[in-house]
Design goal:
Length: 112
C-alpha cells in the first residue's frame, strides 16, 4: 500500500487561509502599531501563498505564460509590501520620536 504525500492545491489554500486569518487576528487585536503592521504583512504573505499555489496548480490547465503571470504578480505584491513596510516603519519612528509611544489608542489624534 503506497500513499501519495504530495501536497495538493487544497493543502496550500488551507495554510494560506490560516496565515491570512492569523494576520487579520493580529492586526485587529493589537494596540501596538508595529504589531498591527506585522499582522498586515502576514495577511499579504497569505495572499501571496495562494497566488503561487494557483499559479503552480493552474499551470497544468494553461500555458506557461499563464503560470508565469502568477509569479510576476507575486513579485509586484512583495514589492508593494516592502514599500508599505518601509513607509509605515518610518512613520512609526516619527510618531515615537514626537509622542514617545506607538500605542494606537494614545496616538489617535492627528494633532502634534
Amino acid at each position: 500500500m503506497s500513499f501519495d504525500l504530495a501536497p495538493t492545491l487544497g493543502h496550500y489554500l488551507v495554510v494560506s487561509g490560516l496565515v491570512f486569518g492569523l494576520g487579520s487576528a493580529v492586526a485587529l487585536s493589537k494596540r501596538n502599531a508595529i504589531a498591527v503592521l506585522m499582522g498586515v504583512e502576514l495577511m499579504l504573505n497569505g495572499v501571496n501563498l495562494a497566488l503561487i499555489a494557483f499559479s503552480r496548480f493552474g499551470a497544468a490547465f494553461a500555458d506557461d505564460a499563464a503560470a508565469l503571470s502568477g509569479h510576476a504578480f507575486v513579485v509586484f505584491v512583495l514589492t508593494v509590501a516592502a514599500a508599505e513596510a518601509a513607509v509605515a516603519l518610518a512613520l512609526a519612528v516619527l510618531v515615537y520620536r514626537r509622542r514617545e509611544t506607538v500605542d494606537l489608542d494614545r496616538i489617535s489624534s492627528m494633532r502634534w
